[in-house]
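Open question from group meeting: does this chain pack into something compact, or does most of it stay loose? Before anyone orders reagents, we agreed to write out a predicted structure and look at it together. Recording both the input and the output here so the notebook holds the full record.
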Amino acid sequence: MTDQETVVDIDMSGKKTQRFVFVLLDNFTLLCFASAVESLRIANRMAGQTLYDWTLMGDGGDLVTSSGGIGFKVDFDLNELGRDDTVMVCGGINVQAATTKRVLNWLRREARRGVTIAGLCTAGHTLAKAGLLDGKKATIHWENQDSFAEEFDEVELTKSVFVVDGNRYTTAGGTASIDLMLKLVADEHGEELANAVADQLIYSSIRTDQDTQRLSIPTRIGVRHPKLSQVIQMMENNIEEPISPSILAKDVGMSTRQLERLFRRYLKRSPKRYYMELRLQKARNLLMQTDMSVINVALACGFASPSHFSKCYRSHYQTTPYRERGAQANRLSI
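Structure tokens returned:
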């Protein structure tokens, strides 16, 4: 970048600098935090004036370590905020452990005072745990969607990149922070400035809240076959009550034998095997991210009995669901 850029003319008459308060949870994702801060910094630069400023807070007001092992000295403990502040809670791995009672109580207090609060990456879990997303739309990183849906049925969970519902914002993580910040910049100061920020970030495709966070099924599996994609979508949407291969085949207008050939040709496994792997993947997510009993995890993933679930799980992951749960508990206690 050069020292001299075109400055976007912004009329700040009647407006004041907006402050963002970044609350860093233990093991927060650096990318979601940096993406948000850099968007604000560049907005100031492109406007040639201080539209935004920001500060860092953390539980205890000390050093907070990101999931990449990089530590940040926060500016303040969880203090009382101004009503015009915007809180950005930054989550990452093991968000359940990072969501302390003190953080929850502080969020509830600030919410009662009318403060706008956002959950970046997995921090949507923290907002939901505090009851701040009840009756609202929200999103969270796709890896946490299964556990979130099981725990917070009062929240309307979406697969969007980000969601703005009143004064509650949530993002799916990673670069989704950029998309949210660009929307906020555009809403406050216009599309021209938001586009200028995107250009500086070399961010050539700005996403909206209508965009979904995961790649399309054809891109994910590396195969562009409409009927195969349709069947996989049906499988993903029916984990708790699996559909038989014969019904799946009928619904897309082919025979069971044709469906078998299709899966073996493109995915090197039978439809039954692929479906089982989807169900076991969801089961592992629930075991790792929730306190659900093994029996309830089995039922949520379409297994009629715990013994059958345990047998299938061990065959695929070389460990039992109970040992998986125990190993996760040990990791969280370290």
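Observations to bring back to the group:
The CA atoms of residues 83 and 113 lie 7 Å apart.
The mean pLDDT is 91.
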